[in-house]
Amino acid sequence: MDAQSLTPARTLAGMAKTPFPGESEDYRQAREALLAEEIEFRRHMTRLAEQRRRLPPGPVIEKDYRFIDETGFECGLIDLFGDRDTLVTYFWMYGPERARPCPMCTSWLGAVNGNAMDIKQKVALKILGRSPVERQFLFAQERGWRDLDFVQTKGDDYASDLGLLRDGYEWPALTVYRRDGERVRLFWASGMTQAMADPGQDPRDAPDIASLWTILDLTPEGRGTDWYPKLRY
Asked: Which fold has domain 66-189?
């Protein structure tokens, strides 16, 4: 995207019309200024995506991590690609020591399930967990998830090596791999750690992939600081 050829965001924002009559001048000016910032944010997200796609080849995954797929068969990381060249994985917090999975992971996966069939037209999509695959699948049935593919990590090497299992506590991770012939390379992994969170905020990536928070950010109350999703209401 060539920024020099783009129409200034303030100019584009000036074209907007409020759908209902009766706006004050203060509201109009504030809304127009906000829209200009939203246009700039959209453009920044586009630049981020372009920069991500330009990443040089990542490290080859040398270790032979083993998994149990949804059919109960043992497989390697490259087998999770199927016939795709790109593999998107989400490691969720549902280890065997947990009576129930993480509510935040559950909320995120519920949203992803709605687009999973579409996503899988382009890339492989696998949900990784430390619990037996049968246990993960039973919870998916409870939630009505029909389009997510669950995979068990065999042993804890994968979680430990990625820093997702520390002092007996799990952390989630979104990781993208790329097929390179008979090898697998890391393409991108979420890198915003808890230590990188800004004051008063939970650790999170940008842009925020979870539709829950994206929608709440559109509201006057916002996402708040002390509310989190639950498994049941």
From this structure: Glutaredoxin (3.40.30)
